[in-house]
Specification:
The structure holds 2 protein chains of 2 kinds.
Chain A (H helix, E strand, L loop, with lengths): L1 H24 L24 E6 L9 H9 L13 H7 L4 E7 L6 E7 L7 H5 L5 E3 L5 E3 L9 H5 L6 E2 L18 E2 L5 H5 L6 H8 L5 E5 L6 H8 L15 E4 L2
Helix pairs in contact in A: 2-7
Chain B lengths: L2 H26 L10 H7 L8 H20 L10 H8 L17 H9 L24
The chains are: A alpha+beta, B mainly alpha.
Chain lengths: 256, 141
């Protein structure tokens, strides 16, 4: 039932997406008009597609401001290491919505550091494999887990090419009101959906990166040709990670 | 036995029945919203209503929340009158030190009924049992 719904939405998304792209060519067309600062009262539509551009060339080696901000915002620090677990095991299994990844070009020996998070694909493999429809793609392009229907099978973690999802193995000490979680469900980056739904237009990682003066993360509406992220995507050469999979990711990288 | 004595006995019996009936109705229908120092308790003491009538809420609060969870999770609608976060914000009491007491602690608003009726309460395996300062990961003071 749920899966069908998602599929229909996706079909709808594609149709309207084509229409929106046509409209976007006409100058001065505002594609979304949501009052800033107001909690959302209408269901999300595909007039907006949230997306992110990460400029890895501005990413400082050893900086983890975005990770810390994400952990704080979404309550990922509210876990204690299980008794008897080794540090290595704990580091491997604790929930991480953003991982810092270091890649090296073996030919040129150029090292790049970049944050890896849920890429919010247009065609998310996690949703394809989910047996209960708990993994879903919201109309505005955010790929999420509905914990009410997640059974913790972790198929999505296997399917995700970006290793973006985490499983909650242990009981949670503190449950944030806006990021509820419990033992036995999978979760991943939500583009700070609670902020977006309450009228804010930035994510915690983006704010932290800007505060530290790196400005490596640009976030916004990919459908709005005048948004900062759309303009940046026009100006810079950007790549999708694993573009060969044709997932049309909502997160793009520059300088990788 | 004189007629007066019989009348007195019947009168006393009727009075006793009436008293038991009144006491019984009070016990069967206590307004638990009034207990404690939560916003809801203060509102109830001054005659304020919950988002629906008490009787309706007692029977149907779970349906209200179940409907709205889909509205919020799938469709992103945050302005709903049955949000669990609002329930907690309104019904959580504070202890002497001013710290919030979890609504699932014995005798608190949610646990009170659910313990009495023996109905498992699953919301709070994931959801917050106390209002949090900024709603996100910040520690509750």
């Amino acid at each position: 039932m749920k899966t069908t719904q998602v599929k229909e939405e996706r079909r709808d998304f594609l149709k309207k997406g084509a229409a929106a792209a046509a409209v976007a060519v006409a100058p001065g067309v505002v594609l979304h008009a949501m009052a800033e600062g107001e909690p959302r009262s209408e269901p999300v539509t595909d007039e907006v597609r949230w997306g992110m551009l990460i400029d890895a060339s501005k990413c400082a080696d050893g900086c983890d401001a975005c990770v810390q901000a994400c952990n704080e915002e979404n309550g990922l620090t509210a876990y204690s290491k299980p008794e008897g677990a080794s540090d290595e095991m704990w580091d491997r299994q604790r929930p991480k919505w953003i991982r810092t990844v270091k890649v090296k070009d073996n030919l040129t020996e150029r090292v790049t550091t970049l944050p890896m998070l849920c890429q919010h694909c247009e065609h998310p493999p996690c949703c394809d494999v989910c047996p209960t429809g708990a993994s879903f793609r919201r109309a505005d392009g955010i790929v999420m887990v509905n914990r009410h229907t997640c059974i913790g099978c972790r198929y999505c973690m296997m399917a995700c090419p970006y290793k973006a999802r985490s499983f909650i193995h242990e009981n949670v000490d503190i449950k944030p009101t806006l990021a509820p979680r419990g033992k036995g469900c999978v979760e991943s980056c939500t583009f700070c959906v609670h902020r977006l739904d309450n009228g804010q237009t930035t994510t915690a990682c983006q704010d932290a990166c800007a505060k530290d003066g790196h400005q490596a993360i640009v976030f916004g509406d990919l459908r709005d040709p005048n948004s900062a992220v759309s303009r940046a995507l026009t100006d810079y050469g950007t790549v999708e990670i694993r573009a060969d999979l044709a997932l049309n990711t909502g997160v793009r990288y520059h300088g990788v | 036995m004189s007629t007066d004595a019989i009348a007195l006995r019947i009168g006393t019996f009727l009075l006793a029945v009436a008293l038991v009936a009144v006491a019984g109705s009070l016990q069967a229908d206590p307004n638990w919203r009034q207990n404690g120092n939560s916003k809801a308790a203060e509102s109830a003491r001054s005659g304020g209503e919950c988002v629906r009538e008490n009787d309706w809420m007692r029977r149907n609060h779970m349906a209200l929340m179940k409907h709205d969870r889909d509205a919020t999770v799938v469709h992103g609608v945050r302005t709903i009158d049955g949000s669990l976060a609002e329930c907690i914000a309104c019904h959580a009491n504070r202890d002497e030190q001013g710290h919030y007491v979890p609504v699932t602690a014995s005798g608190e608003f949610c646990a009170g009924c659910h313990e009495y009726t023996g109905v498992a309460l699953n919301c709070f395996q994931c959801h917050a049992t106390v209002p949090s300062s900024n709603g996100t990961g910040g520690q509750v003071k």
